[in-house]
């Protein structure tokens, strides 16, 4: 096993948690004072918009309110839809060219390399699993082959559960660096494995690292990105995952002729981990986390660096209002209280519905669909799917801050439902064989594309946007825990359901869940584009005593 010393030497970790300024109050008093400050701010707000059952529609867009730190739009000035919230401009773009995202882009790009690794480890077992089974002595045992793949999900489950404690204590930057250790070690152990046990240990370690990163990266991007570009930059998670899958599948092509090539593929997975450790050393820490732990001067410095000096004062005012001297750590039980319980319910529901809308089942079955039209290479078929997924993610990055999260989510699931019913039609009704195959391929690619423009990226973007600064990591950890459980269940029972009911019936069920999710999004998801995280949080906070209707 590779010793972690060389990697640890790259980390400049504080000997103790960052110092926090004290105000001479006991923790409970500071907490109470924070509540009073927030309540006073909320009393200054105008009456809320009508709420979705019962409160979250407060985020829905309306006329600029008097409480917002964003001034009303003036003639000749861009509307709030594009610049609302601090960080809206992100700096001077210079003339007609909008370059406000440029300063923050290297930071979020470095973080999104973790999603590249996620995609890579999804695709790395696609081709060479038979070669691995043959060399490690479990060939012909489908249970053990499935275990090598699924142990990754088990590790990700535990990583998601433990991620919030690391993020709250160390911040996003240091957590990303430390989390690269199990990713590098896991890939190395898997690459040099000479037994099934070693392979399982390596895959489990990789899963832990992926579980932490899938929670952490959306939080980091949402907290670092300027409001105007938060949605578009958030799609880097999906884009990174797609590129990782494509890279793994492309690198895996030689495995069809070289039975030992899988070791090279797994050794290659160590490289992005080292790049993340080195790159995050130069990346900024989340200004929201810095403010939450009392490092307000550092938070201001980050804001001035990546959003521009003109945004700093407004940003810090909003951060101080939300933090409100509350430096205690959130507990899991706070997800049971309002409004955190509703945000957690939305997060868990979105991932539950996403998985049972069938994305992993369709990905699994796509190789058989392509085989019917003469594309016998599973890797080549998966490459077609990966490129379609990547194209959809690029479209989403362009539309996220224009059309908004809610519209993309609804349109995405409607497209997925239509694609599923198209495939069911091609399977269930007597058609010319070539026509049926063409409809199946069209439906499969349309489903993947529709998923990539909304259901994939929006789910990870909107949950941290709706979460409060205090409970964001807990809500994300809970939501992704639901994701991994559902992911495991779909993978476990998909083929059994196909054997019992047939592909047409299972795909019809996926289409029905997609329609149900579009309806859920229409009724319960609120639009967050163009609003700062602090503005969203204040809109969702319970009204002060005497203010509730």
State the separation between the terminal residues, measured CA to CA.
Answer: 61 Å
Number of helices: 23
Largest sheet: none
Radius of gyration: 24 Å
Overall pLDDT confidence: 80
Strand count:
0
Order of helices and strands: HHHHHHHHHHHHHHHHHHHHHHH
The coarse silhouette is: globular
Oligomer: single chain
Q: Report the sheet-strand fraction.
A: under 5%
Low-confidence stretches: 1-33, 35-95, 544-549
- The proportion of residues forming helix, as a percent range, comes to 55-70%
Structural class, from secondary structure content? Answer: mainly alpha
What would your notes on this structure say?
By secondary structure, the chain is mostly helical. The protein is built from 23 helices and no strands. The relative contact order is 0.15. Mean pLDDT is 80; it is low at 1-33, 35-95 and 544-549.
Characteristic terms for this protein:
549 residues, mainly alpha, globular
Describe what is shown at a glance.
The protein is mostly helical.
List the helices and strands and how they pair.
Blueprint: H1 5-8, H2 27-43, H3 80-83, H4 105-123, H5 129-136, H6 142-191, H7 196-224, H8 230-234, H9 236-251, H10 261-268, H11 270-280, H12 287-292, H13 296-306, H14 309-323, H15 340-356, H16 359-372, H17 378-403, H18 405-428, H19 433-455, H20 457-466, H21 472-501, H22 503-524, H23 533-540
């Amino acid at each position: 096993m590779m010793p972690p010393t060389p990697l640890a030497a790259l980390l400049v970790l504080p000997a103790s948690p960052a110092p926090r300024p004290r105000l001479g109050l006991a923790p409970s008093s500071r907490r109470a004072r924070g509540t009073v400050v927030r309540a006073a701010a909320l009393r200054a707000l105008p009456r809320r918009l009508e709420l979705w059952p019962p409160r979250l529609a407060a985020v829905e867009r309306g006329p600029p309110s008097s409480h917002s730190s964003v001034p009303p739009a003036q003639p000749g000035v861009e509307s709030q839809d594009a610049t609302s919230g601090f960080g809206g401009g992100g700096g001077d773009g210079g003339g007609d060219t909008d370059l406000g995202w440029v300063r923050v882009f290297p930071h979020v790009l470095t973080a999104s390399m973790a999603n590249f690794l996620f995609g890579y480890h999804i695709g790395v077992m696609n081709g060479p699993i038979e070669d691995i089974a043959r060399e490690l002595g479990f060939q012909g045992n489908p249970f053990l082959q499935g275990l090598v793949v699924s142990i990754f999900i088990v590790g990700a489950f535990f990583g998601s559960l433990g991620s919030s404690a690391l993020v709250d204590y160390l911040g996003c930057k240091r957590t990303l660096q430390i989390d690269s250790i199990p990713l590098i070690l896991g890939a190395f152990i898997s690459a040099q494995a000479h037994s099934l046990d070693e392979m399982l240990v390596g895959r489990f370690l990789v899963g832990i690292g992926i579980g932490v990163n899938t929670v952490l990266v959306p939080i980091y991007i949402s907290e670092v990105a300027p409001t105007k570009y938060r949605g578009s930059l958030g799609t880097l998670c999906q884009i990174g995952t797609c590129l990782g899958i494509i890279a793994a599948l492309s690198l895996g092509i030689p495995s069809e002729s070289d039975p030992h090539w899988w070791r090279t593929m797994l050794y290659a997975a160590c490289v992005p981990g080292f790049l993340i450790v080195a790159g995050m050393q130069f990346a900024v820490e989340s200004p929201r986390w810095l403010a939450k732990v009392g490092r307000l001067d550092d938070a201001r410095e980050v804001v001035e660096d990546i959003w521009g000096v003109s945004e700093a004062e407004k940003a810090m005012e909003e951060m101080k209002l939300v933090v409100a001297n509350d430096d205690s750590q959130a507990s899991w039980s706070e997800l049971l209280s309002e409004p955190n319980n509703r945000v957690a319910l939305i997060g868990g529901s979105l991932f539950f519905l996403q998985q049972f809308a069938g994305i992993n089942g369709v990905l699994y079955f796509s190789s058989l669909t392509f085989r019917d039209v003469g594309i016998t290479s599973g890797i080549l078929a998966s490459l077609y799917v990966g490129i379609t997924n990547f194209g959809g993610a690029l479209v989403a990055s362009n539309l996220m801050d224009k059309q908004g999260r809610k519209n993309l989510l609804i349109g995405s699931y409607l497209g997925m439902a239509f694609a599923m019913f198209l495939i069911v039609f091609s399977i269930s009704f007597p058609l010319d064989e070539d026509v049926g195959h063409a409809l199946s391929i069209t439906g499969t690619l349309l489903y993947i594309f529709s998923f990539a423009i909304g259901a994939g990226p929006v789910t990870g973007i909107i949950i941290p946007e709706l979460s409060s600064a205090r409970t964001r990591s807990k809500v994300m950890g809970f939501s992704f825990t639901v994701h991994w459980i559902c992911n495991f269940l779909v993978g476990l029972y998909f083929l059994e359901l196909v054997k019992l009911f047939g592909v047409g019936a299972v795909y019809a069920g996926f289409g029905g869940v997609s329609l149900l999710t579009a309806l859920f999004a229409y009724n319960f998801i609120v639009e967050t584009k163009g609003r700062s995280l602090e503005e969203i949080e204040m809109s969702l906070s319970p009204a002060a005593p005497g203010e509730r209707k």
